[in-house]
Amino acid sequence: MKIELLYFENCPNSKPALELLQDVIRQEGLNFPVQSIAVETLDDAEKHRFPGSPTIRIDGLDVEGEVRYPFGLGCRIYLVDG
Asked: Is residue 78 situated within a structural domain?
């Protein structure tokens, strides 16, 4: 299983997202590393199809399913509990 966390530098949510992701992996009894990928430029954002920071992908798939956001160096907001 390939687990990725994409982020831009100084994103206030990337570290908490990484910690939460690692906690979930441990709670599920899994032993997969998380690959952290820094997205530093707009070209990087396009190359990685990066909808914002933080982005989590499992085996190349976004955790929210198909992403239709514009790609860029912005913050990402996730809908939780409706």
From this structure: no
Q: What is the pLDDT of residues 25-59, one digit of tens each?
A: 999 999 999 999 999 999 999 999 999 999 999 99
Pairing relation of β-strands 55-58 and 3-7? antiparallel
How many separate domains does the chain show?
1
* Tokens coding 15: 């570290």
Beta carbons within 10 angstroms of residue 73's beta carbon:
16
Question: How far is Cα 34 from Cα 59, in angstroms, rounded to an integer?
Answer: 11
